[in-house]
Design a protein that fits this description.
Elements lengths: L1 H13 L4 H7 L4 H13 L3 E6 L2 E6 L1 H14 L1
Antiparallel strand pairs: 1-2
Helix pairs in contact: 1-4, 2-3
Length: 75
């Protein structure tokens, strides 16, 4: 849950970013982050968008609500 919380916090604070930048900001191995992003997308909590020929990951409204919930739990 701690890893997921770090990912969600990074995405909430930084907005739409590429996977590499999220992995750096969350201090997480890229391969491990990618698995979490896939899970978040399957659950409808995140989605990939294309801007300026770059794939960014952004939280959906449900994802923002979930991020707020786990943020409160981990504190």
């Amino acid at each position: 849950m701690t890893v997921l919380s770090r990912i969600m916090q990074t995405m909430t604070e930084k907005g739409a970013k590429g996977r590499t930048q999220i992995s750096l900001d969350a201090n997480l191995n890229y391969a491990r982050l990618a698995k979490h992003i896939v899970w978040l997308e399957k659950k409808g909590l995140a989605e990939s968008t294309v801007e300026n020929n770059k794939i960014n990951v952004v939280l959906t409204e449900n994802g923002k609500t979930f991020a707020s919930t786990i943020s409160n739990i981990s504190q």
